[in-house]
Structure prediction request, 194 residues.
Amino acid sequence: MNLSFSDRLSNFKSVLADARLTDSAALGLSIESGLQDVYLSLSKLKDATGSLYIIGNGGSAGVASHAATDFFNVAKIKTFTLHESSLLTCMTNDFGYENAFARILDQVINKSDVLIAISSSGNSINIRNAVDIAKQHHATIITLSGFSEDNPLRKMGNINIWLNSDDYGFVEIGHQFLLHNIADRFNPKFSNHT
Prediction:
């Protein structure tokens, strides 16, 4: 495996350029129209004064935290992650890690809200259980995943963003780049979308 910067940069560009977006019926969307659909969903959320919840594990939790800051600061959307340590460890202790995010969401999410669910592999059961709860509450769901094209998370959202890579670094940074691109659409300095 060649780890030179120029080779990795070229590979990363290819991963982003090959991002695949689908809707809830698994119909393909162009990258731009899919990202615009996410932006419009978040604009509607903002107008309705709903809440945005962003979840992930490990590196994806870091992506979630960064994205939450961007959506809160730039887009002026009420945005929350659900990995505050006392709450998350309480839910994990009482209900198991696979149910921790789901238990929290069940008490706070409603149909005017949006959940962004991030899992590099798309296989994280705790993320998928949280998506199931968000569906029960009729919230809008956006998923971000990578690795296997047929990972289960990729089929669960209203809009699903998938990166064709099994490289954690590429998938995590790719997810961050895409979420940044969406948040930046709310900034009049960069945007023609408002």
About this structure: The two ends are 43 Å apart (CA to CA). The chain has one domain: 20-154+170-184. The longest strand covers residues 114-119. Helices lie at 5-17, 31-47, 59-73, 85-95, 97-108, 125-136, 168-184.
